[in-house]
Amino acid sequence: MSSNDPWRWVARAGAVYVFVGVAFVAASFFDPALRALDALLVPDRAEITQSVRMYAAVMGAVVVGFGAMLGRVAASIERGPIAIGAALRDAVLLWFVVDTSASLLHGSWQNALFNAGSLALGLGPIIVAMRARETAARPA
């Protein structure tokens, strides 16, 4: 990717998304930061509950995964479908690790269980598609 490549801006945007997502996950464990985010984004002055912490962590994890996907796919676009598949796989795995870890730390084994099903739903087709592409790319 050259410095003038428009995909570089997509990769940078992905990095910003990852940063914002990490901030939300981190804030979910630190009430003063979560109160500041809540006041800025949802100015209802509601109490910070376990549910609010959990939602902030899950939202942050999803944004981390989305940002990683944007950034990695943009950085892989010129290397072809296998590299793009690897970028998608890595982003899904990053989301899973961050979301599931935060969920368990916040006491939500239910969301961690839901994440396992979501991981299978998203990761399975990516791996099948990558293997099919790799097989097709091998010389006969």
Descriptive overview:
By secondary structure, the chain is mainly alpha-helical. The chain has 5 helices and no strands. Helix 3 runs antiparallel to helix 4 and helix 4 (about 80-105) runs antiparallel to helix 5 (about 110-135). The two termini are about 30 Å apart.
Note the gap between the termini.
31 Å
Annotation field: number of helices: 5
Radius of gyration, whole Å: 18 Å
* Strand residue content: under 5%
Query: What is the percent of helical residues?
Result: over 70%
**Mind describing the biggest β-sheet?**
none
Please identify the oligomeric state.
single chain
What is the chain-wise order of helices and strands?
A: HHHHH
Classify the secondary structure makeup into a structural class: mainly alpha
Tally of DSSP β-strands: 0
Shape estimate: flat
The stretches of 5 or more residues where confidence is low (pLDDT under 50) are none
**If you average the pLDDT, what whole number results?**
91
Task: List the main descriptive attributes of the protein structure presented here.
140 residues, mainly alpha, 5 helices, flat
Give a concise summary:
This protein is an all-alpha fold and 140 residues long. Helices cover 81% and strands 0% of the residues.
Layout of helices and strands, plus pairs?
Layout: H1 6-27, H2 31-41, H3 50-76, H4 81-105, H5 109-137
Helix pairs in contact: 1-3, 3-4, 4-5
